[in-house]
Amino acid sequence: MKHSPSSAAVPYRDICLDRIREIYPDLQPRNDWDILQLVSTPLRKGTQEEIYAWLDQTYAKANETCPGVSERTTCLLNTRMELTGKKPRSGDKLVYIRPIPDCDYSIRLFPGASDAAEYCMDFVETATGKAVNSPFEFELWNIPNPETPWLSMPMTGKLRSIERAHGIKQEDILPGEEKFVLRDGQTCMLTRPDKRPVWFTVPIRLQPNAQAMEAMDKIEFPRFAAE
Q: Which residues share a beta bridge with 131?
């Protein structure tokens, strides 16, 4: 998560509540302490009464050790942040889906933190739009843009998902939760055994500092020259 003053930032509380609705669909947080604990500790099993009792115990212990924990919890949840990695919902903007040739799956790009120019990628079923974890054997590479390779350093690098980069085994990733963090304007190549590689360039969002360009006039030339 990124601290950010941008217009895309939302209170951390909203981010936490969205997550709680996913992992505890039948549980209603009673206060800010409940909200923070439910998203910052491993998933708790048990009845609602048992989970509430555990939350009460953790609060009593924390408040005894460090009085004023409620105020600090509320202050943290009021912090405005942008979130990188949260899967998009139906109707979200700046989400792009493109089918992969000779395949039942598509690449989906969706926004991450705009202040860090982060865009996310995952795989979805083309027919249903359902997110899936690595559905076939592949490698994802960062490459210079093939259309203008002379403008980039001649370097490539293999990319891993957030989960694999944090040491989570492939089989332990929750279904449909795997994603890759890319950058606005980054060019990537997807390779598969016995298939032609495919490449794509991540869309670029207008950054706040780009508004300074409004003081200049732009002269347009063709993007590609051809006789």
A: 124
Q: Token digits for 145? A: 């843009």
Give the predicted TM-score (pTM) of the model.
0.70
The sign of the torsion formed by the CA atoms of 135, 205, 39, 91 equals negative
Question: In angstroms, what is the C-alpha Rg of the chain?
Answer: 22
Q: What confidence tens digit (pLDDT) does each residue in 138-169 have?
A: 999 999 998 888 887 777 899 999 999 989 89
Q: How far apart are CA 89 and CA 221, in angstroms?
A: 38
Residue carrying structure tokens 């304007």: 185
Structure tokens that stand for 224 in this block: 């590609």
Among residues 80, 70, 65, 157, the alpha carbon closest in space to that of 113 is found at: 80
Report the distance separating Cα 109 and Cα 95, nearest Å: 6
- CB-based burial label for 182 (10 Å; 0-12, 13-18, 19+): buried
Residue-wise over 64-92: b if at least 16 C-beta within 10 A, else e?
Answer: eeeeebeeebeeebeebbbbbbbbbeeee
List, in order, residues 6 or more apart from 46 with CB less than 8 Å away: 54
Residue with tokens 């709680």: 20
Q: What angle do CA 80, 84, 88 make, to 5 degrees?
A: 105
pLDDT number for residue 136: 94
70, two tokens: 């409620």
Q: How far apart are CA 36 and CA 47, in angstroms?
A: 19
Count CB neighbours of 113 within 10 A. 22
